[in-house]
Amino acid sequence: MAMNEPSTVLMIELLSLEHEQAGYQIEIGLTRDIGYARRMLTIDEFTYEQLNALAPYFGERMRLSLYPKWDPFRNSYYSTLIIMNQTFSETMYFACSEYYVSQLLQLKQEDDPHVQEEIAVETTPPSIHPARKLRKRKSKRPIGRLALQSIMFACLIVVLLSLRMGGQDMDRAEGLEGPSLGASAEEIDQIVSLPFIPPIGKIETAPIQQDESEPTPEPSKPAPEPSEPPQEQTKRYEEYKLTGDKYKYSLPKGYVALSFDDGPSKYTKEIVDILVEHEVAATFLFVGNKVARNVEAVKYANEHQMTIGSHSWDHSKMTDNGVKENQNNLAKANQVLEQITQSPITVFRPPYGAINDKLAAKVTEQQMKVLLWNRDSEDWRRKTPEDVIQFVHHTDPSGGVYLFHEKKITVEALPAIIQYLQGKNMKFVIFK
What we know:
Domain NodB homology: 254-429
InterPro entries: Glyco_hydro/deAcase_b/a-brl (IPR011330), NODB_dom (IPR002509), Polysacc_deacetylase_ArnD (IPR050248)
Strand content: 15-25%
Shape: globular
Order of helices and strands: EEEHEEEEHHHEEHEHEHEHEEHEHE
Largest sheet: 7 strands, parallel
Distance between the termini: 13 Å
Protein name: NodB homology domain-containing protein
GO molecular function: hydrolase activity, acting on carbon-nitrogen (but not peptide) bonds
Mean pLDDT: 75
Transmembrane segments: 143-163
């Protein structure tokens, strides 16, 4: 299952919103699997005004979505800005133009070695103060209000004359029907300045077809008694060995992985039982300071062949910690987990997905590999199991590393999620 993957974007953070004489721009923090850099992105006036209307901006991190969606009722695209700090997360919606959407669509497919070299230069993400308002530079308008109104009136006359004379339809600057980019969400964004791309047609995600050459999966066998670890479990999953040369966030086509953060908890055993019943497995990323209250849950997951990984000792934002503090944090979490599993902890997922070179170096020192994700269920903010199920149904599962949490609604949704993925002939993976 080895892959030669291009350097891929993991996250985009909005740093500033600016209006200069040359045009409209946003400054972004671009995190890829090989490093971090700041960039300036040129946007159109419509999208700028929509973002500007959300001001003031507060929060330690402001993450832009890479997946705008088409709203057929309003005949326009919309996207989201997620404002986060250690105590809350708020999602804000804004309309955006087709030009903005076309840039994102282009950049998801980009594989430019020169861009990779540039990104690798700077590796420490900026720290945005929770109460810092994004700077908005004052507009420098060389044209007076009256002159601008005159130009707009003249343009309107030209448009009306063109329509009356039966000329060709003019291209719309915003709101053309296009792809629903949320259907195959890769978690994470990349933006650079690009020339305008012509309007794109509607793209529909086709269902994944079963390979004719592959044998039909055998019918499910009765699950072993939950109270006893299975001796010879029928495996409908494979092990994926992490190499550590890049942060792992995706899988080859046809494979899928389930991962659960923020345990162990009172739900761990129930999640394991559901997985065993469906003859699959998952990767559990446990928080060290929760282990003492849930020792049996960790033991139970380990006995049933689940992968046990570290999610830090205290779920702090480790990129804000000192080097020595992170070293102790990682070692302390590993120690309590290894006492139960009696084997090395080799998989690490940083809280909030926040990682930089200094933290990555400490992870490597302790013989661990970084596991991220590309399908975020956001089950922590959803209200019903059906909401979680619908998220899975509206994403392309092929190659997905799904991020879930140990929550009641997720437990209730899990059987339907597994059955859906099995119905798509996905091969399940756990990480080692």
